[in-house]
Each structure stands twice: as structure tokens, then as C-alpha cells.
User: Fold this.
Amino acid sequence: MPDAIEVDGLRKRYGPLAAVDGIRFTVPVGEVFAFLGPNGAGKTTTVEILEGLRHRSEGEVRVLGLDPWHDAARLHERIGVIPQEFRFFEKIHPREAIAYYGVLFGTRPDPERLLRLVGLSDKADARFDTLSGGQKQKLGLALALVNDPQVCFLDEPTTGLDPQARRAIWEVVRKLKAEGRTVFLTTHYLEEAELLADQVAIIHHGRIIAEGTPGEIIAAHGRSERLSVESTPALATYLRDRLGLEATARDGRVEVPMHARGDALKVLTALEASGLPWQSFSTERDTLEDVFVSLVGRMDEGELKAEGNP
Amino acid sequence: MRPARIYADLKVFVRGYLRNPIGLFFSLFFPIILVSLFGVIFSASSSTVTLYVENFDAPSNVSAQFLTALNHTGAVEVTVVDPNGSGVDGNFTHWLAVHSHPVGLVIPRGFQQAYLSHERVNLTLYTNPGDAVSSGIAESAVAGVGNAFSFAAVNGTPLIGVTAQPVGSTLFKSIDYLVPGLVGFSILTSPMFSMVDISSSYRKDGLFRQLSLTPLTKGEWLASKILWYIVLTFLSAAIMVGIGVGLFGAHVTLSLGLVPFLVLGPFFFVSLGMLAGSLAKTPETAAVIGNVITFPMMFLAGTFFPVSLFSPPLQLVAHALPLYYVIDGMNQVMLFNNFAGALPDLAVVGIGSVVVFLAAIVAFRWRDA
Assistant:
């Protein structure tokens, strides 16, 4: 099956500034792809180019095999888009909005089903300007589904929402995936990407600095799993000298990377044998957030070169 | 263009419109206020002067006939005051001054007797130099009636008669002109102000982008706005004609010849408002561009005053304003019942509408490059 989204060498320039600077990635059909990056990284520019709302300066872009800018009308019949901070006609009711979109797309949507899907049934007949931010976003989602889209674009769908509304949106994204739709998601919430995405690309200053599954990115760019013991620096010295492990001491904790399955057991045995005082231990691994913060930080300090640079 | 999509968009737009009391107020109550206000102003400034009369010859037949004749001139309306009644107390000039009445006439005792015996008799007309217009009207009315009576007394006939024959604009009362003018005014202002506002606020709120993601086309979107403003135009025209005719006695002809103007007028100005709004980069400049286009037309296109009253250079300006052709056409139909005379206007408005509509569609963008 061909990929739902194919991007190669994509650039978007605003004068001398390149908001998107030569990125490439593909999104297979049926996957949730998260485009992760800090504010101003180029996420929205990219997603708008994919949606056919913005013209690219350079590069190849195909969504469902179509050129988003030149085949916009045909593409829009097959994709659903929820923009950042969805806004609509102030006085319209959600039920009417869905019926309206149904006529525009020439489909016969079931307003009740869509409203239930996004959790907006109780506000079906409320005026749009009386809805909360989360409810407006939910209507945006419902409208994006009126044409039964194969690919859904969600641009920071949960930014500014309370935790409950955020979880509701996540639930819908999971349902979309379960229904076999491809989802392209931009977010600056790492948790969101980690929870929802099959594939993640981290974009910074218009370039992709890491990509893969969340696990792959953590494995490639994060520190490996480690055992952390609340103890004195003397323990670190003991472990290094006696067992040859790379133990480091910091802030009252001693950390030992786990390379092999038996490493943890070795450390705990040595801990007992050492007779040194210790309180608690835990195993820790980098989250996507740790990797993200470290990658973005290193890139800002000029240590790291982005992938796919010319 | 798909009618189903235009209709769906129209429905959404109209609902939004009806759920917004301010928009509704401006569309329906504004015409009422407008026509009532100007109706009152122009009726009040009628050229009939109230002439207060002290008749010391009452109840003589001749003095009574003289006053009736004065009333029949149409220039003055006689109000007889009791010379010794309350307030006047024998001092007529003082009474006139205190009550700010500019003109007063005194008919002396023995007026009938003198008249019938062909003796010279003098009427006294008090005038106020501060109100030259009323004074002049009263003076010529009294002098005219006086002359007529003088001739009648000697069975003479005036050799030179004057028959006043109204020309052009004076054929109609002000309110007659005002009805088509104000209908034109609302054809101009309601769509222009709304569309300039819509074009910038939709852009700011990302609504055009949102719509661009649907199969709705720019032409369909604009068409639904045009349809709604045509409906509003018919409503406000009906209101204004109703009030103008019913309350202020306007004489206008209602015929099918009016329909093309009530359709093409909003068509033109909805498109022009959209074009103006699209050319602006910010909401502020949109409002400025909208006002620059709208304001000259509000006053110079024959809305409140017939263009024929303007100086020639100003008439030239009026002829450059699109609204002039809408109002002139409606004048032809409503005042002169002359649809053939309205055809050139119709041609200008019709061609203009198509050009501006197409220009608006090209100029306004769903999405950014």
C-alpha cells in the first residue's frame, strides 16, 4: 500500500527565513504520526502545506497521491482538518454546523453519531460562541469527520485545553486510528505524542532532528535504562572499583546504566555486600520528553546537526 | 455553482444574522428610522407660511373672502387672532415678536366699506427682516391677492397672466424624491458596511481557510451573501415605501421595473464591499477603504437631494458614482413611471455588477500563498 503522506525536500521560505528547511518523511496508511516541536519550529507551516492551505517553496509533497496545493479541491474531499484553535460562525449550533458541512460535501452525516463520537451531544443546540475552548475543538473534530476522511490533520488539537478535554480528544484520535484512518498530529506535548503516535518526528528550526517510534527515538537519543539508588558517592566508587560498572553520583543518588539483564541483580547484591547506607532504589528510563529537551537543548547550543541537512 | 451549497450557506448566514440583534436592528429598523426622520424633516420645511391676522373688519364678507383667497394661494396659511384676546391685548407687533411669529397682517376697520365704495384702503403687513423667506412669501401672497381684489372691484381683468408650470424637480414633493433616494441609501450602506466587516473578520478568524477546506467555492459563498442582501433590500424598500406613502403621502409608482434595481443594486454593492475588504491588508484599512468608497455616494448620488439641484461639477462627480445609476433608475421608474428611461441606468448597474462580482472573486483569497 502506498504511503498516505510523502514529503521529500520540503522547504517554505518567508523572505530570507526558511520556516521549513528541507524535511522528508513518510506516513504509512493507518498510522498516527506525531510532528513534535517547540513553538515556532515549523509544525503549523508544514501541516498547512500538507492540507493545501499554504504553497510550498520547494520539494515534493503528496497526500493520498495528490499535490495538496494544485489538487486542493480533490484532496479536501478526502481529508479532515482541525486547525489550531478551531473557530467557526459565532451563532451556529453544532448540529446545524454538521448538517451544513454535510450539504457542502454532499454526504449524509449522522449528527447524533458524530456529536456522540466527539462527546458533544449535550451541546448539540448551543450557540458556538457559548462553547468552551474544548467544546469548540470537539466541534472542529466532528466537522472534520463529516466527509469520512482517509487522513485527518490535527494541528495542536489540545493546546490550551484542560486535562479532561485533552483526554477526550485523545480518545477520539484513538477511535480514528481504530477505524483505519491515518492521523497526522502536531503537538508540543510530549506525552501526547508518546501516548498516541506510532511514529514521531521531532522538528526544530524547520528541520527534523529525530524520527522513529517513540521507543526508537528514546533508544537512539536518550540514555538507556538505569538503576538509581539513593545513597552516598562512596557507593559509586565501590561499584566502579568492585564491579567495573559506570556508576555516577549526583544529588544524593547513584545511577548505574543497565546494559545486560543481570546488571540490576549484580548492583543490588553489591549494595548489600558493601555495607554502605542506602534508602531506596528505582529503575529509570528517559521519556520522550527527556530526549526532546536534551535534543532541542543540544541543537540550540550548536552541538547537533539536524538530519537531512544539505 | 451548486444551488444546494448556496442554499446551505445562505441558511447558515441568515441564521447567524437573525440571531444577532444588532445586525437585524440595522437592517430593518434603520430604514424605518431613516425614512421617518427625513420624512419629518422635509415635511416640516414645507413652504407654507403661517400668517397671523388681526381682522378689525370682522365679520365682514369681503375680509372673509380676502382671507379665504390668501389661504387658496397655498403660500400662506391664515390664522386669525382676536385683537383684544388674551395675550394680544391690543399690541399685535409685541405679541408677534414675543411668540416669534415672523409675519402678521392687520385688516383695518371699514375695509369692506372702503372696498365696496372703491376707496383706497391700506393693509398693514408686519414682517421680520430676520426671516426674509417667510416675509417675502407673505408679502407677495398678500400683494397678489390685493391686486386680484383691486381688479375685481373695477371688473377688470389682468392682461398679463402667469400660470406657474412646475419644471423638473419641483414637480414632486421632497418626500417623493426621498423614497427612491433612501432605498438607494440602504442598498448602498447595508451591504457595503457588512461585507467590508465580514471580509476582514472572517479572514482574521480563519473562517475563509476553514471554508476553503470544503467544496464550497468563493462564487457560491458570495452568491449566498448577495441573495440575502437582495431579500433585505426588498424588505427595507417595502418598509420605506410603506412609511413614505402611508405616513408622509409620497407619490411613487410601484412597478415590476423596480425589481431589477432591487436585485442588481445589492448584487453590485455586496460584491464591491467584498472587493474593498479584500484589497485591504488589515481590518482597519478595510474600514477606511470601505468608508472612502461609501461616504461620497451616501450624499452625492441623489440619496437625499436630486442630483439636478447640484452644481455642474458636482453633477459630474455624481455621474461617476455607481449608486447614482441605481437611484436614477429607480427615480425613472418610481417618479416618472418610465422604464425605458431607466434602461441606460440598468445597463450600467448590470454590467458593473458582473465586473465587480468577478473582480471580488479574483481578489479575495480563501487561502494564503
About this structure: Chain B touches chain A at residues 4-5, 7-9, 11-13, 15-16, 19-20, 205-207, 209-210, 212-216, 367-369 (CB under 8 Å).
